[in-house]
Design goal:
370 residues, Rossmann fold, 2 domains, binds beta-D-glucopyranose, eight-stranded mixed β-sheet, alpha/beta, 14 strands
C-alpha cells in the first residue's frame, strides 16, 4: 500500500513538472502563469515568419508582460484553435498574422467577444469589424518597387514579362500586384514589355486601375499560393509553352523571395533564356546569397524589427490603458481599420552590404562572397 502511494505521488510530481514545462514553452518575459499578449503567426515553413518569431523574442527580452507565440502551419482551423488556446490563457491583446484573411474573421470575432484587442499583423484580416488595429509595411510600395526595378533594367522593346503573384487568400497579394501594375501597365501598353504568361493581364493592359475582380482574374492565372513548389511548377509550365519570341532576355515579377528563388532556378536552367531580371521581397538570407551570386536581381527589404516594435509598442500602450497612435486606415471590406505603416527598402547587389550588414540586420559571416 505504502509503495503504491509513493508511486502515485512520484507519478503526480512528474506530471506536474512536465505540465509546467509545457506551459512555459514558447513563452517569453514577465511573471509565469498568465499570458498578456498572444501572438499567432501563419507558418514555420517559410523563413519570413520564423524570422518574425525570432525578432519578437529579441524584442521581448526583459519585458514586464508575458507573451506566447503560436504557429498556424498554413491551416485556418489550427489558427482558430491557437486563438482559443490564447483566449483561455487570459490574453488582453492578440497580435495575429492571418493564414487566410477572410477565414481568420471567425477567430478574431471569438477574441473580440472576450474584449480582447485585436491587432492584425502584416496581413489584414478582412470582412469583419473585429479588428482594432493593423501594423503593416507599405505593401503597395513593395509591388511598385518590384515593378520599377524591372522597368529600370529593361532591354530594348517587346521584352517578355512573366508575372507571378502571391496567394489570393492574402490581401497583401492584391496590394503587391496592384503596386506593380501601377508602374508596369503603361510600359506594357506602350510595348516596352509584352506579357508572356497571362491572357487576363494582356486583356487588361490598357487599364491603369484594376478592380478587385480584375486583379482576381490575373491572380487566378499567375498565383504561386506563396508556395515555392507551386511557383516552380507554374514557371516550368510557362516556359514549356513559351514560343522563341517569349524567351531570350526576359523580366520576371516574382512576389517574394521564396517563390523568386524557385522561379529563378527554372529560368536559369532553360537554355533559351539568355538573361532574366527577377524581383523578390523579404530579404531572406537564402535570397541575399542569391543576390550576391547574381541569381536573384533584387529583394525588397522589410525591416521586421520595426514591425515587431510597432506591434509590441501598440500592445503595451493598450495594456497601459492608452490609445495607440496610427498613421492612416486600411479598408478591410467591412470597416476602415486604423493602421501604422512602415516603409520598405529596395536591395540589390549595389547596396546589400550597406542596408543589411551595416544596419546589423544580418552578420557578414552569414554570406559567402560579399
Ligand atoms: C508577406 C510577405 C510574405 C508572404 C508569404 C505576405 O503577406 O507580407 O512578406 O513573403 O506573405 O508568406
Amino acid at each position: 500500500m505504502k509503495k503504491l502511494v509513493k508511486m502515485l505521488s512520484l507519478m503526480m510530481a512528474v506530471m506536474l513538472f512536465t505540465g509546467m514545462l509545457a506551459a512555459c514553452s514558447g513563452k517569453t518575459g514577465g511573471k509565469a502563469g498568465k499570458v498578456d499578449v498572444g501572438i499567432v503567426l501563419p507558418t514555420k515553413d517559410e523563413p519570413r515568419w520564423v524570422q518574425d518569431e525570432q525578432r519578437f523574442k529579441d524584442a521581448l527580452k526583459g519585458s514586464d508582460y508575458t507573451t506566447e507565440i503560436l504557429f498556424s502551419q498554413g491551416s485556418s482551423a489550427k489558427e482558430k484553435e491557437n486563438v482559443e488556446t490564447l483566449i483561455n490563457k487570459g490574453i488582453k491583446v492578440l497580435i495575429i498574422c492571418p493564414q487566410d484573411g477572410d477565414a481568420a474573421a471567425a477567430a478574431v470575432e471569438a477574441a473580440k467577444k472576450e474584449k480582447i484587442t485585436v491587432i492584425s499583423y502584416d496581413r489584414l484580416i478582412t470582412h469583419t469589424d473585429a479588428v482594432d488595429y493593423y501594423v503593416t509595411f507599405d505593401s503597395v510600395a513593395v509591388g511598385a518597387a518590384q515593378g520599377q526595378y524591372l522597368i529600370d533594367h529593361v532591354k530594348g522593346k517587346d521584352m517578355p514579362l512573366y508575372l507571378y503573384a502571391g496567394a489570393a487568400s492574402d490581401n497583401n497579394a492584391f496590394l503587391f500586384f496592384q503596386g506593380a501594375w501601377s508602374v508596369l501597365q503603361p510600359k506594357i501598353a506602350d510595348g516596352t514589355f509584352k506579357v508572356a504568361n497571362s491572357s487576363a493581364a494582356e486583356g487588361l493592359k490598357e487599364k491603369q486601375e484594376l478592380s478587385r475582380e480584375e486583379l482576381s482574374k490575373i491572380l487566378g492565372q499567375v498565383t504561386t499560393n506563396w508556395d515555392a513548389n507551386d511557383a516552380k511548377n507554374k514557371a516550368q509550365t510557362h516556359l514549356t509553352a513559351a514560343s522563341a519570341a517569349l524567351k531570350g532576355d526576359v523580366a520576371v515579377l516574382a512576389p517574394n523571395d521564396g517563390t523568386a528563388r524557385s522561379i529563378a532556378d527554372v529560368f536559369a536552367s532553360d537554355g533559351d533564356i539568355k538573361s532574366y531580371v527577377v524581383t523578390g521581397q523579404d530579404a531572406e538570407k537564402a535570397s541575399i546569397q542569391y543576390v550576391i551570386d547574381s541569381k536573384q536581381s533584387m529583394t525588397v527589404f522589410k525591416d521586421v524589427r520595426t514591425l515587431v516594435k510597432d506591434a509590441m509598442g501598440m500592445a503595451v500602450t493598450i495594456l497601459d490603458g492608452k490609445k495607440p497612435e496610427t498613421t492612416g486606415t486600411y479598408d478591410n471590406g467591412k470597416i476602415k481599420v486604423n493602421a501604422k505603416q512602415t516603409n520598405v527598402i529596395v536591395v540589390d547587389k549595389e547596396n546589400v552590404k550597406k542596408e543589411l550588414i551595416d544596419s546589423d540586420y544580418y552578420k557578414a559571416s552569414d554570406f559567402k562572397g560579399l
